[in-house]
């Protein structure tokens, strides 16, 4: 119930100028799909399909921003560490999370990333606060071959997308331009359904251009 109320609040706080007929149809399709297939993260269905095929049972994962993604990933991998800055959300997830999830509450969790082990995680989802800081700090924590998932990436980098709130330029005080300079030679896959846009980056630190 709390997840539902939280989404309603998000809905009310956002502008709805982008609500075209095409957008409403797409959104209704995803909502109805999620009713029949519950427990899915709010990502494009094509991204979910990709992750189901590429997240392995032995993987150790990391996510910033808990929710349905916490349940989704915990069913696919060996262990998941999830950071959350909303205490009510944290309490709700804590009561129903799977045993292989370590859920951490901290209002300033981007500052804690440097304490994590280097070259340790097989995948990471960036979907919470200060996403550029999280992404920049987590690169050294990912394994040489790993998966980086950037949700709503169109909000933060110049991007031609039908999904709403797409940025026209990099924010002047963000780390995104520096991040993508580091990731220049890594394979990037875009999943954009006109509702939200997710970029999945295949990290390859063996590539001499990575850093």
CATH architecture: 3-Layer(aba) Sandwich
Strand order of the largest sheet: 3-2-1-4-5-7-6
CATH domain fold name: Rossmann fold
Span between N and C termini?
44 Å
Order of helices and strands: HHHEHEHEEHEHEE
Low-confidence stretches: none
Mean pLDDT over the full residue set = 89
Structural class, by secondary structure, is alpha/beta
Quickly count the domains.
1
Count of helix runs: 7
Quaternary organization: single chain
Radius of gyration over all CA atoms, rounded = 17 Å
The strand count comes to 7
Name given to the CATH homologous superfamily: Vaccinia Virus protein VP39
Description:
The protein has 211 residues and is an alpha/beta fold. It has one domain (2-204): Vaccinia Virus protein VP39 (Rossmann fold, 3-Layer(aba) Sandwich), CATH 3.40.50. The protein has seven helices and seven strands. The chain has helices spanning 2-13, 21-36, 45-54, 68-76, 87-96, 131-138, 176-182, and strands spanning 60-64, 79-84, 101-105, 121-126, 142-151, 187-192, 197-204. A seven-stranded mixed sheet has the order 3-2-1-4-5-7-6, with helices on both faces. The longest helix has 16 residues, at 21-36. The relative contact order is 0.14. The model has no long low-confidence stretch (mean pLDDT 89).
């Amino acid at each position: 119930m709390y997840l539902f109320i939280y989404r309603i609040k998000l809905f009310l706080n956002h502008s709805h100028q982008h609500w075209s007929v095409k957008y409403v149809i797409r959104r209704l399709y995803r909502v109805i799909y999620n009713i029949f297939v519950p427990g899915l993260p709010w990502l494009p269905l094509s991204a979910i399909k990709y992750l189901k095929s590429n997240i392995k049972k032995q993987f150790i994962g990391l996510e910033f921003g808990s929710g349905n993604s916490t349940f989704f990933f915990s069913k696919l991998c060996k262990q998941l560490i999830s950071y959350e800055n909303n205490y009510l959300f944290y309490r709700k997830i804590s009561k129903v999370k799977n045993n292989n999830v370590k859920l951490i509450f901290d209002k300033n969790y981007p500052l804690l990333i440097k304490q994590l082990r280097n070259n340790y995680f097989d995948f990471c989802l960036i979907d919470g606060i200060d996403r550029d800081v999280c992404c920049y700090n987590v690169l050294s924590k990912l394994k040489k071959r790993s998966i980086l998932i950037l949700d709503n990436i169109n909000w933060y980098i110049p991007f031609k997308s039908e999904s709403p709130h797409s940025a026209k330029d990099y924010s002047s005080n963000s780390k995104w331009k520096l991040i993508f300079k580091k990731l220049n030679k890594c394979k990037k896959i875009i999943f954009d359904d006109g509702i939200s846009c997710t970029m999945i980056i295949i990290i390859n630190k063996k590539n001499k251009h990575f850093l």
